[in-house]
Amino acid sequence: MGTLRALTLMFRVPRRGRGFWFSLAIDLIWPLMALSARLRFAGSLPQRGGVVLASNHLSFADPVTVTAFTLAAGRIPRYLAKASLWKVPGIKQVLDGGGHIPVVRDTAQARAAYVGAVEAVKRGECVMFFPEAGFSDDVSHWPSTRVKNGVARVAMETGAPVIPVVNWGTHELLPAHARFPRLFPRRTVQIVAGPPVDLSDLTGIDRETLNEATKRIMHAITELLAELRGEEPPVR
């Protein structure tokens, strides 16, 4: 996607339901992203009804690029994010305005995030998950084997389709431990959405079912990333 096309697309993506501050953040960051990276999008999302997105995680730039992709696909993403971000002035207003969901990890309050995500999906929202709950720990940037089952739990509770999404290139634009993006040479960032993960034969929300659903979701993400990279993933 060329810079001019990316900037033009900004004015054609959904605006209603973004909230003032989230919308402002998008309008400020989108041009910077279009100027600093070549964006390549492929795949589509359901245009109506609740949907769950599950993506690999390589960089702090991922929420920006995934948001751009999701908007370009006609949906507004709602994220689950660390509750500590709500304590940051400015960020709090963006998160609240965008209808995002705070997560207090490893506490009894973590269930509130699950309930919030289920309610959002049942309202017909598009809820975004990074199942690894952090950056990939693989040196070759394949999805981590240590994942959370929250995305599977929400999918099984709501019956909503789970769409695998993969990012590639954000780790070069903004490496995991870098303080600033690498603007030169201009990087290419690719985002692809695949077909829904088939969970139709699974029932219940017991641990065994959630583990199997999570495994299928992560397998779909890994296979989609392998296709995008043109490489074979490691055998695990």
TrEMBL record:
Keyword field contains Mitochondrion: no
Signal peptide as annotated in the record: none
Alphabetized InterPro entries for the sequence: Plipid/glycerol_acylTrfase (IPR002123)
Keywords, ordered alphabetically: Acyltransferase, Membrane, Transferase, Transmembrane, Transmembrane helix
A Pfam family recorded for this sequence: Acyltransferase
SMART domains referenced in this protein's UniProt entry, alphabetically: PlsC (SM00563)
Record GO biological process: phosphatidic acid biosynthetic process
GO cellular component, one term: plasma membrane
GO molecular function: 1-acylglycerol-3-phosphate O-acyltransferase activity
Keyword Membrane: yes
TM regions (residue ranges): 20-39
Top-rank taxon: Bacteria
All copies of domain Phospholipid/glycerol acyltransferase, residue ranges: 51-170
Stated name of the protein: 1-acyl-sn-glycerol-3-phosphate acyltransferase
Organism, scientific name: Actinokineospora fastidiosa
